[in-house]
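Action item from last week, closing it out:
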Amino acid sequence: MTDGQRSGSIYDEARKLAAEGRVAVVATVVDGEPIGIKALFTDRVVQGSLGDDVDQAVLQAIRETDGTPTSGLISVGEETRVFLDVFEPSPQLIIFGAVHAAQALDWFARKLGYRVVVTDARRALATRERFPDTDQLLVAWPDEAYEQLTITPATAIAILSHDPKFDEPALLGALKTNARYIGAVGSRKTNQERRERLKAAGVSDEQIARIHGPIGLNIGGSTPEEMAISILAEIIAVTHGRDGRSLSSVQGAIRGE
């Protein structure tokens, strides 16, 4: 295999890992010996090696950013510099509860480029007949599902089961992750009662504040498709740090600001 083929293989693997929802880093020695050598990292060395000391320095640099590094140069000692080429994870949506709204949410989210996982312990609902094209379908209780999932800051979690024995374990698991968005279905009363139970279980006010419940933006929708659009609109708004208001009410919106 030529150097070019080896390099291509590393970048192909990095893109594959990102598509699966993982942060991948291709590290290249740009100053020092052996110059030009590459290796692939996640939270460990995946492919290749830059030498034990340099590998450990790269891993430490990744850990110091809580697993979300940015592309750029790092120095290792006085003579070695390494360029980190970061492949950020593809946006991912995890749906707990294989209900009717989940079918519409799965369809719309994949059209927007999300990798979608649908999970439910109810075998009659979590079927390929109902979710033929979703990227991953898990028949599992929430705690079992989390053991099989990779969750990153590019992940959104939508909890749609509308049943406390599914919803609350799913929420407790979600709050232990660094998911960008956590939303839970239910009325205002349901969500308030749920928050009280979570507080009684020892969840902090700061953690509870991460939950978007009732889930979605207030657009008045009632069909599964309208609910899906409402949920995705809120996820998009949170992703971009916006509040989801009408553009006509935002100062400067006409100027495209």
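Closing note: The chain has two domains: 3-87, 92-239.
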